[in-house]
Write a structure and sequence with these properties.
583 residues; alpha/beta; Rossmann fold; 23% strand
Length: 583
């Protein structure tokens, strides 16, 4: 392909400025055929050490010339008294002109003569450089000067004013070509053949393309997520200033609620308190129990339970439990918690010093809270509890959440703490989740999208299955371990269908199993996350079904690196209409 990389799945741009330049080049369709080439991030320069290569941000090439382009995002400063440049927001000394010239000299004097021995290709091509400052204006005190064989010329600079309007990148390339073609050092250059041009392009791709390994990209995604989540720890400090008040912490997916809940558990246990930690999802609590040893919590200080497992634990009760009625929501939300509260053994009443509830939106009703409050010393009136919840995006079980939330604020001493910023997902994940559900876009801290999330449409179940297995193979080819991928199904019937596609590569558990990809319902995966999430949308996609939309939003925001959702193409027009409305 004339533009490289041609596919940016799994590709990392070192700066948002470079990404914007790349996107502009793609949008302007300058490289629709092999007459022109654009390469991002070529390690052309010799830095003086065999372990480190200098990187050129972009190289433009056609049969007349090669242009070496250096991009600097943010503020760029120039000190006219010393002729020094300062990049990275004006905080670090660095000369973008010299970086571009280094790539030019290395290519003209070494790489091309070595590639075309005796054919003098370098003598037939024009060479030039350009420097791009898309976020700022060129310094007013920067004037033309020359250092050795390097020209520092204001006309070679692309700045914020150049970035405005249509075809901004193409206009800049035309300007550079006109400047360097007329330059005395390039006079009499006849150009090269299409075959020679293709040979250089293949040589650049094969020998100099600078890409981060996939494992490096995944590691960076994890580091970014951990860094941004740590920024949310301030909310727990608020609890210290309100020691007699319960905390109701409300935040959308990816805001770090579960990590904060674990940190609060650790802090309370360190204070010597006996803590009950409750969530709704059985798979989530199984996963969280594996974290206890990492938290350094001593045995006996913390009990971690999923709600219905706790309420049905016979050791807490002085009467035999009634039979289970799986499809009866009244049993789970009303009758079971009432039975637990009425039949709780005396030695367990008030046996915990502190209560932490995760997935609170699924537990927010009067019967379940009364049951949990009976285990708390001093009851709910003590204020010795914290609830982490998302009643706006992830409420798929509970119709009473909003009403009981209002009651809870009024009836007990509480402080409400919002978590507004998503730490897990990237911009494209949030946008994709919003487009397919109509739910609001969250603000997110992770702005770099190495693997943009996507919506795929299928014509039949067979087509869906073929696309799904092809995507698994693609990810494996990129070096992604199977256990770093989870397949989530909107409908329970889809789980068995998917498992039958590749039994040796897939498994039905929520937790990671070495060299296998997990396949399960979205419900069963709520509260968990993985690097890559492949979601099978509902058989009958219905934008008016709010519960279904919440499910899809949950699935789309489980991914740390990339989410892909597969939707029947019968419903493509509905999603495209919503996409048009958002833009």
């Amino acid at each position: 392909m004339p533009i490289s990389p041609s596919n940016i799945q799994g590709y990392r741009f070192e700066s948002s400025a470079e990404r914007r330049i790349y996107d502009a080049a793609v949008k302007e369709k300058l490289f629709a055929n092999s007459a022109k080439y654009l390469f991002h991030s070529l390690s052309l320069c010799n830095t003086g050490t065999s372990k480190l290569k200098g990187e050129i941000d972009f190289v433009y090439m056609d049969s007349d010339c090669i242009l070496f382009l250096e991009v600097k995002g943010g503020a760029v400063k120039y000190d006219a008294s010393t002729a020094d440049w300062y990049v990275m927001g004006g905080t670090k000394k660095g000369d973008p002109f010299k970086q571009a010239y280094d790539g030019l000299f290395q290519t003209r004097d070494y790489h091309l003569p070595g590639l075309f021995k005796g054919f003098h290709v370098s003598g037939r091509l024009g060479f030039g450089i350009g420097v791009m400052f898309p976020d700022c204006l060129k310094p007013e005190d920067f004037t033309r000067r020359r250092i050795s064989s390097m020209e520092y010329e204001p006309d070679l600079v692309y700045d914020h004013s150049d970035a405005q309007g249509e075809m901004s990148f193409g206009r800049y390339i035309d300007r550079l070509k006109a400047y360097w073609t007329a330059h005395p050092q390039n006079s009499g250059r006849s150009g090269i053949s299409s075959k020679e041009l293709s040979t250089i392009a293949d040589f650049f791709r094969r020998s100099f393309h600078f890409t981060l390994p996939v494992i490096g990209l995944l590691d960076q995604a994890v580091k970014d997520q951990q860094h941004f989540t740590r920024m949310q720890m301030y909310s727990l400090d608020t609890l210290d200033y309100n020691p007699s008040r319960a905390a109701l912490i409300q935040g959308g997916p990816g805001t770090g609620k579960t990590i904060l809940a674990l940190e609060l558990l650790r802090r309370k246990c360190e204070e010597g308190k006996k803590v009950l930690f409750v969530c709704y999802n059985k798979n989530l609590i199984t996963h969280l129990r594996t974290k206890l040893s990492l938290l350094g919590i001593k045995e006996g200080f913390a009990e971690m339970r999923h709600l219905h497992g706790l309420l049905r634990d016979q050791q807490y009760l002085n009467s035999q439990l009634p039979g289970i009625r799986d499809e009866d929501s009244d049993y789970w939300f009303t009758e079971l918690p009432l039975f637990f509260n009425k039949n709780l053994r005396a030695e367990f009443r008030g046996s915990f010093d502190y209560l932490i509830i995760d997935e609170g939106q699924d537990i927010l009703n009067e019967y379940q809270f009364d049951a949990l409050g009976s285990l708390l010393k001093g009851g709910l009136d003590s204020g010795a509890f914290t609830v982490f919840m998302d009643k706006d995006f992830q409420n798929i079980y509970n119709t009473d959440a909003e009403e009981y939330f209002s009651f809870l604020k009024e009836a007990y001493p509480t402080v409400v703490l919002p978590l507004k910023l998503n730490c897990r997902n990237t911009v494209s994940m949030i946008k994709t989740a919003s487009v397919q559900t109509g739910l609001p876009k969250m603000d997110c801290l992770r702005q770099v999208d190495n693997w943009p999330s996507q919506i795929k449409y299928y014509a039949s179940e067979k087509d869906r299955d073929n696309q799904l297995m092809a995507r698994l193979s693609e990810l494996e080819a990129h070096g992604i371990c199977r256990e770093e991928i989870s397949i989530l199904c909107a409908d329970k019937s889809q789980v068995g269908q998917v498992l039958a596609l590749a039994p040796s590569k897939l498994h039905s558990g929520a937790l990671k199993e070495k060299n296998k990809t997990a396949v399960l319902t979205i419900h069963a995966y709520k509260g968990l996350e993985n690097q890559f999430i492949l979601t099978l949308g509902p058989v009958n996609y219905d934008p008016s079904n709010l519960r279904q939309m919440h499910l899809l939003y949950i699935a789309g925001t489980r991914a740390c690196v990339q989410g892909t959702v597969y939707i029947d193409r019968r419903f493509k027009y509905l999603i495209e209409e919503r996409y048009d409305q958002m833009n």
